[in-house]
Amino acid sequence: MTARGLAVHLALASVLLAGAAQAGTGQSRGDRRDLDVVASAQPSDQRRDDTDRVVAETMVREGDLKADAVATTVTGCHGCRGASAVLQVLYVPGPASARFDNVASAWTQDCWDCTATALAVQVVVIGPGTRARPGNRALAVDDACATCLTATAAFQVVVQVDAVGRLPEAALAEVAAWFEQQAALLQDSVLAPAPRHRADRLAARALADLRAAVVRALDGRTRSARVALTRSDG
């Protein structure tokens, strides 16, 4: 591994662990429930195209919690393709203290004509007594690569309602279809990259669509809605 590659790994570890360190301040692990969902794609010479897609829906009945949704992809073989995508839907009736971290990370290293994408989506529905601390991050890096492309997208929506319940089946289907569309668009973006201003505009529109679908279905109000995009061309 090159010196720059080592620095990339260390920087990524810091990004992923920052939320856990902050969430743990002032309370013991035994008092907090951890709800982590991870999608990980690791293509290799034996599996040149690797895709991992994870969807999780969870109702939290009681207690404080920390929830991490993480999509991570590492590509280091010539001509390989890696794509990870995670969708986490959480319901927190409260009262609770909750830390929500949503992270998409992808990198390519020591290869040519290789790609890596990661999509992280976190939808959280909370009651009026829940103290929410959301975080949303994306990271894309190329190291010692020629003609490599990496792209990440992280979408996070936190909606507050008076009485927490599951999204209706029709709304869940709408969110799932939205997720599949964004995963496909992200993979397309490394094949035919769009100008950054256009990508930002499309991402903002996609975030608005996701937020509207959840708010409309539950008659709630938005507490937080964030999107982060990164792209790196080797």
Sketch the topology as an H/E string, one letter per element: HEEEEEEEEHHE
Whole-number average pLDDT?
Answer: 86
Radius of gyration: 18 Å
Instruction: Please estimate the helix content.
Output: 25-40%
Helix/strand-derived category reads alpha/beta
Shape: elongated
Instruction: Note the gap between the termini.
Output: 17 Å
Uncertain runs with pLDDT below 50, 5 residues or more? Answer: 1-31
- The total number of structural domains is 1
- Number of beta-strand segments: 9
Main beta-sheet annotation: 5 strands, mixed
Report on the architecture of this protein:
The chain is α/β, with parallel strands linked by helices and 234 residues long. It has one domain (3-233). Helix content is 28%, strand content 47%. The chain has helices at 3-23, 169-189, 196-218, and strands at 32-41, 49-59, 64-75, 81-92, 96-109, 115-126, 130-143, 149-160, 221-233. The chain has a five-stranded mixed β-sheet, covered by helices on one side. It is elongated, with a radius of gyration of 18 Å. The two termini are 17 Å apart.
